Amino acid sequence: MTPQAPGAPLVLALPKGRLLGDSLALCAAAGFDFGGEREAARRLRLTARGGGAQALLVKPPDVLTYVEHGIADLGIVGKDVLLETPGDVDEPLDLGFGACRLVVAGPAGATARDLDAHSDVRVATKYPETTRRYFAARGRLVEVIELAGSVELGPITGLSEWIVDLVESGETLRQNGLVVVEEVARCSARLIVNRASRKTKFETVDALVRVFRKEAKARAASR
User: Fold this and answer.
1) What is the distance of C-alpha 153 from the center of its chain?
2) Cα–Cα distance measured from residue 102 to residue 196, given in angstroms and rounded to the nearest whole number
3) What fold is seen in the domain 10-98+188-222?
4) How do residues 86-125 score in pLDDT, each as one tens digit?
5) Are strands 100-107 and 189-193 parallel, antiparallel or unpaired?
């Protein structure tokens, strides 16, 4: 049964990029058909066929912002985003897709033991806060260099000794002469919910969470 929102439609914040296709497919399976990834590519807002929900297509870090501020009732976002910027939202469900690892990587031949071999260490990353927490937990203070682009260039150019980045197959690391030396966290797509929406739209939101949970289990069983 498709959850139906009384009054104002539900608003979902969906991430542009690698998680969008699976996010749209999951919404369609739950009864909210926003169309395909190609159709959504240049749009910022979509309305589900038949109504009942709208989707905002935003950059992954902005999903949390829209949900936390109540512009969106629910959102789908990678766990890496939530680790980097914890927000005041509920996180009821691991959706299972978009699985990857957040890792420390360095030059070929490096091992985890090498992380503690030198006192002056520079780490290039798109995840500065997560990186600081990780090394602080190891008892290390490091210089974190924040990059927006390809962090693999850090060790190659001498900008940094290490990187902290997401990997799926690890092929990009191998092609650039880098290896994984330590896993920071396992990440996948998560469903997040605005705390106020979970109270004011409890029946609708709870029904959608249950449908998403069922679909996530079915997808996991079919892998």
Assistant:
1) 23
2) 31
3) D-Maltodextrin-Binding Protein; domain 2 (3.40.190)
4) 899 999 999 999 999 999 999 999 999 998 887 789 999 9
5) unpaired
The rounded distance, in Å, linking the Cα atoms of 3 and 25 is 16
What CATH code would you report for 100-186?
Answer: 3.40.190.10
CA gap 146, 25 in Å, rounded: 33
Number of residues in the chain: 223
The residues pairing with 13 across neighbouring beta strands, listed in sequence order, are: 56, 75
Rg (CA), the chain: 19
pTM of the model: 0.90
- What is the per-residue DSSP string for 102-158? EEEEEETT--GGGGGS-SS-EEEES-HHHHHHHHHHTT---EEEE-SS-TTHHHHHT
